Amino acid sequence: MRLQQQANGDVARIVVKDLRASFESEYAELKEKFFPVASFDADTFCPRSVWPSGGERLPISVVQANFIHGGLILTWCILHMAGDGTIFYTWTNIWAEECRRAQGLEILDPIQLPEAIWQDQEQVTKPSGHNAGKLEDHPEYSIHTFTPQGAPPKMTSLNHRGQVFYFSPESLAALKAEASPANATETTDQKWISTNDALAALLWRTVMAVQSPLETLEGDPVSFFNIAIDGRQRTDPELHPTTLGCFLEYVSVSTSIRKMLSTMNLADLATEIRKVILRADGRFTDDVVALVEQLEDVDRLIPTAFLDVPGFNCVLTSWVKNCTGWSGDHCWATISRLYESPMLVASTAVKLCFQFCRMVA
């Protein structure tokens, strides 16, 4: 992939659709139902499809404003290779400030971007030479013997659907207690797990139970579970927390699906998840860079779980720590819902549902 700078006149403009005559649901009605994903047709509300075709020129960012009765549904398609959740929130803060400036509104607390977010990129553009970058140390990645012409067929299928589930603080606390290492059936030295570990274990086991019930299994298939982590936190010295670029990296845990659904419990899975996350230390990102540097063709590197997803494998990403900067002048309005596109597998598009407010298109 090569990035090409665009002149101002060539930059993609916000697509504006007035759906008040064709979209029957009203904003208040959708809000009352917690904005069900099934209410939104991706072809109508999104400016493009999730997956590109071979040789296609891709914009980094494409936005579509959909006006419905009583409100606005704003969709944003993002090229993930240009950034991750952290960077997209930085972009959005800047965008929000420029919306205020365009309306002549006072900006009491202008955004200040530190030089470090550019300078710290240099630390990861080349391997340090201190780490070997061996594939056997990174089960989260696989290398094709050929150069694939696109994403795996299962991932590009249009049959995927999304759904939003809500976990209350009380239910998360109960889940974490159930998934505690103290309840593991297998011997472990691990004493602690995070709430995210517990939730990851629940999601992994649930997806496998639904897609591959015990009675349907042939043989003893293994499930690979890739979990997204922030590579900025896995460097030495540590990078600025908002360093520009896509630092989406993975760790991977695997187990027999038959064993997962029969003898293992949530505590066993959560403990294994915590172990692989802890192994991603300050050398991790540099070791991945060293691995990539040795490749004949970077297009042959693929997250292992992507080889069969949806299928026996599973992938988890999280934006849990990326909302901390949305406050004060940097907010556009009250956000009613934020979620991924219903056809989404990788996080390349998000839907932002805002209360109807003054905006410039």
From TrEMBL:
Region (Disordered): 125-154
Gene Ontology molecular-function annotations: acyltransferase activity
Entry-linked InterPro entries: CAT-like_dom_sf, Sec_Metabolite_Acyltrans
Pfam name, any one: Transferase
Organism field: Penicillium flavigenum
Keywords assigned: Acyltransferase, Transferase
Lineage, opening ranks: Eukaryota, Fungi, Dikarya, Ascomycota, Pezizomycotina
Protein name listed in UniProt: Condensation domain-containing protein
